[in-house]
Amino acid sequence: MSGIVATPVHFPHQHQDPRLSPSHPSRFSHQGPSSQTNAHPVSYNIISSTGRKRKAEDEEPQTDDRMSTSPSPSLHQRPLPTQRITKRPRPGTIGRPLPLPRLLETLDTDSLRGILQTLCQRHSGLGSEIEQTAPRPSVPSALAVLKQYESALQAAFPFGGNPTSDYAYNRVRPALTNLIEALTDFTPHFLPPNEPQASQSLSFLDCATDLIHRLPDWNTFQNRLHKQNAYEEISKAWTLVIQEAAKRAGGIHIQYGGWDQKLTKHNQQSGGKLQEAIEEMSKHLGWMGGPSSPQQPTGRGDDLSTVRQELLSGTYGSNLPVRVGPW
How far apart are CA 283 and CA 276, in angstroms? Predict the structure, then answer.
């Protein structure tokens, strides 16, 4: 019992870091004479005899409760909820027909017209729907179609030779027939009561009559029947339009449009084949002369057309001298 010397216990300060090295022994510590001969010297250090500092891991308790940086096996193996994404199926690279709008874009006028005619023949009620849906043909559009038929007629003539011979007629007869039939179909469309505006009717008849003037005068009488029949039909059309136009506003559309002069010129070019229309205009207006002398004024008092125009415009008597005094 006397040989064992108790080692003094050192209590560290609360705010002192236990990992720091303890201070060296105080120089004021007293060592007795017996301490030099003691087998167990007093140590005031917590440093081991080898002089090696204790690591931080030596001071921490070696337990199995330390947290691991690796994820927990239970969380790692737990299946997470996944959202199912449905992909839109894409068409494969295979051949397929064009949509209807793209197909119609590739069709020209003749092909589209042929398709419509075939559909109208197969379905009888489709024709009336197209007539109600399609825009109304105008005078320029109708004349453009007639111009195409006329160009086809001119292109059908043989090169060289007599253009009015029977041989030329046989060559161009299909194109001539198409032109006459188109003119026959378009003319009633611009006549009253289907066309309520007299100006539109007269404009079409004026251009249509010019087209008839340009038809060939064939050598054979039988071949000239196409042109003669066309003159007869166009003369009846002129007569009908003049009758309807004279009922409206006293025939003012015919008077101020100069249609009397145009009709007289057409009658002269046709060789008097429009005489029926000339007589109808003279009867309703009462101021136009005959086809032989339509522009022969004999004086101011006798020029009925001039007087009528001045009366309607309100300028009659503006250039006459004004009498002053008693009458």
Answer: 11
